[in-house]
Amino acid sequence: MKSIYLITLLFVIATFPVKAVTTVLEKFEVLNSHKYSYSYKEVCDLFNHKDLPLIDPAGSNKIDCMGNKVNISLFCNQKLAKVNNDISKKFMRGIIDQDKRKVICQTGDRINLKEFLVYRVQGGII
Known about the structure:
- With about 130 residues, the protein is α+β, with helices and mostly antiparallel strands.
- The protein has helices spanning about 1-15, 40-45, 70-85, 85-90; strands at about 20-30, 35-40, 55, 60-65, 70, 90-95, 100-105, 110-120, 125.
- It is built from 4 helices and 9 strands; from the N terminus they run αββαβββααββββ.
- The mean pLDDT is about 80.
């Protein structure tokens, strides 16, 4: 059955002038997930940037503590290690929730990723 899909894919690639192949992440699922939420102030305080009037996200993985950029993955590793070293070993990712102005440290046992390929041709997308 897989050979039929492979033959079909090779036919499509050979038939159309492909410009680029892009991998798109469709699903990021953490099994046995737990989320720990911290304020922006707690992030800056851990790295001795205290009592700051302006704290904002600096991209998808950093917090700007008045000019000092803090990586949230580093924060999560250090913060979770203080709580429980076994939890920090299960750290999967750090997320910035801009609406609630929180940093979320997500732990879990395993990550399931589901992705698919997008073939771009001269006339559009297959």
